[in-house]
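Researcher: Let's do a round of design. I'm pasting the C-alpha cells now; please hold your answer until I've finished.
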C-alpha cells in the first residue's frame, strides 16, 4: 500500500485533533507514514500537539509525528497539505465581528465586512504557503484548503498562483447535508446534492437519497423547522445555541424564497437587519469560541500535563475532519467521488462570468475537480451572486494593487453594508485594526 506524507498547516488549530482522528481512522485505506503539524505559533501548536500525540498513539502509533515552524522541515516531499490557517487568530476575528456591529452592520467572520477584512489578512500568507509547496513538496502535491474566507482565498490564488495544485473546500454544505440526513433519517453518504453558488453564498436545488428525490419533502420540513433535526443527532460543533438559531433561520428564507434550499450563511445577506438586532455587540461568536472550544482544549492540555489524564473524544469533530479526508482520498486514488467544491466557473453556471469562483458538485480525480454543469440560474440568484462576486473580486484587486479605492468599492458593493458612508467608516476602522496584517492601501 502506498504511504503518504501529510502536512497540516495551522497545526495549532483546535480542529487539528479531530482532523487527525478522521485521517488515521482511514489507515487501512489511506496510510500516512509521516504527519507534520506546521504553524508559525510554536507555543500554541505545542499545546495542541500534546493532544495530537495521544490521538496518534490511539489510532496509528506507526505514524511519525513532527511538529515544526520550519518551512523546509514542514513541507519537504509532502504529498498532501491540509490548510486551515487563521491569520490573526480569534483576537482578530473578534475585531471582524465587533467593528461592523458598531455601525449596525452584520459582524461575521466570513460574511460582510468581517469576511472582506479576513480575506485581506489571508491572501498573502496563502501565497507564501503555496510557494513553500512549490519549493519543497512532492511535485504532485495537493493542497486541500479549508482556510477562510474560502471564496476570497480561492479567487486570489487562481489569480496570483494559477498553477498551484490547490482544491478549495468548505464543510458547511456537508454539515447542512448531515442535518438533512438526520431529518430524512438516512446516512449522510447516501445523500446526493445538486447545488450552486459561491462559498457561503449558495443554494441546494435537488436532494436525492439513494437516487430517490426527497427535495419537496425536505423543503416542506425546512419551511417549518429550518435545518434543526427532529432529535439531537447533530454533532457538538454545530449544536450550541448560536448554531441552532442559525439552522432555525433557514425557515424564514425558505418561506420567502421557496424555490431552493439555502446555505445557512445566506441569513447574513437576506436577514441582515434581524441578525444585527439579535446580536450582542459586546459578546460575539468569537467570544463564545474563545470561552468555549478554545478554553476547553487548552484547559485539557494543562490538566493532562498535571495529571496524565485526558478525554480525547471531546475533540473529535465529525464532518469537518471527515470531509477533508474524503476529498484527499479521492485525489489520491482517482476515485471520482462527487463532492461540493470551489472551482473556476468556466461555464459550469452558464450565465455567470467564467472567472467567478463558484461552489458546485464535481467529481474529484487525481488531476483535480471535474465540475458538473449547472446550466442557467434564475435572475434573483444570478443578481445577488454577481453582486457578491464583484465585492470579492474588488477586495482581491485591492490587495494586489494596494488600492484603498478598490477596498472601499468592495465594502460598498457588499450587500450587508447600507451605504458608501458606512462602508468608509468600517473600512477605516478595519485598516487601523489590521495594521500588522493587511497590505498597505493607498
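Researcher: That's everything. Go ahead.
Model: Designed sequence:
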Amino acid at each position: 500500500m502506498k504511504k503518504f506524507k501529510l502536512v497540516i498547516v495551522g497545526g495549532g488549530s483546535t480542529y487539528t485533533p479531530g482532523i487527525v482522528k478522521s485521517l488515521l481512522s482511514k489507515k487501512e485505506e489511506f496510510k500516512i507514514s509521516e504527519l507534520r503539524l506546521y504553524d508559525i505559533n510554536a507555543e500554541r501548536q505545542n499545546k495542541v500537539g500534546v493532544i495530537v500525540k495521544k490521538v496518534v498513539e490511539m489510532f496509528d502509533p506507526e505514524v511519525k509525528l513532527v511538529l515544526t515552524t520550519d518551512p523546509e522541515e514542514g513541507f519537504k516531499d509532502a504529498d498532501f497539505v491540509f490548510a486551515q490557517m487563521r491569520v490573526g487568530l480569534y483576537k482578530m476575528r473578534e475585531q471582524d465581528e465587533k467593528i461592523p456591529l458598531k455601525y449596525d452592520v452584520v459582524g461575521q467572520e466570513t460574511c460582510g465586512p468581517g469576511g472582506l477584512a479576513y480575506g485581506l489578512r489571508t491572501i498573502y500568507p496563502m501565497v507564501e504557503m503555496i510557494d513553500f509547496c512549490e519549493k519543497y513538496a512532492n511535485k504532485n502535491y495537493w493542497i486541500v484548503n479549508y482556510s477562510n474566507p474560502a471564496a476570497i482565498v480561492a479567487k486570489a490564488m487562481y489569480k496570483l498562483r494559477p498553477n498551484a495544485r490547490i482544491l478549495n473546500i468548505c464543510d458547511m454544505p456537508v454539515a447542512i447535508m448531515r442535518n438533512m440526513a438526520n431529518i430524512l433519517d438516512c446516512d449522510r453518504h447516501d445523500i446526493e446534492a445538486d447545488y450552486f453558488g459561491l462559498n457561503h453564498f449558495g443554494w441546494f436545488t435537488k436532494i436525492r437519497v439513494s437516487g430517490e428525490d426527497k427535495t419537496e419533502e425536505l423543503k416542506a420540513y425546512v419551511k417549518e423547522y429550518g435545518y434543526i433535526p427532529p432529535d439531537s443527532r447533530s454533532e457538538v460543533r454545530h449544536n450550541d445555541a448560536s448554531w441552532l438559531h442559525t439552522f432555525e433561520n433557514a425557515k424564514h428564507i425558505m418561506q420567502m424564497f421557496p424555490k431552493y434550499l439555502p446555505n445557512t450563511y445566506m441569513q447574513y445577506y437576506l436577514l441582515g437587519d434581524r441578525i444585527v438586532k439579535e446580536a450582542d455587540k459586546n459578546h460575539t461568536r468569537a467570544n463564545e469560541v474563545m470561552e468555549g472550544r478554545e478554553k476547553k482544549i487548552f484547559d485539557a492540555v494543562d490538566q493532562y500535563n498535571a495529571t496524565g489524564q485526558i478525554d480525547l473524544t471531546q475533540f473529535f469533530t465529525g464532518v469537518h475532519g471527515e470531509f477533508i479526508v474524503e476529498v484527499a482520498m479521492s485525489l489520491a486514488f482517482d476515485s471520482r467521488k462527487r463532492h461540493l467544491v470551489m472551482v473556476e466557473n468556466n461555464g459550469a453556471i452558464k450565465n455567470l462570468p467564467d472567472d467567478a469562483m463558484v461552489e458546485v458538485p464535481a467529481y474529484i480525480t487525481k488531476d483535480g475537480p471535474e465540475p458538473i454543469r449547472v446550466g442557467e440560474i434564475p435572475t434573483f440568484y444570478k443578481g445577488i451572486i454577481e453582486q457578491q462576486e464583484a465585492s470579492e473580486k474588488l477586495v482581491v484587486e485591492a490587495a494586489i494593487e494596494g488600492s484603498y479605492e478598490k477596498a472601499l468599492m468592495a465594502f460598498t458593493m457588499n450587500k450587508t453594508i447600507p451605504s458608501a458612508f458606512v462602508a468608509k467608516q468600517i473600512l477605516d476602522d478595519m485598516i487601523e485594526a489590521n495594521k500588522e496584517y493587511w497590505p498597505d492601501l493607498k
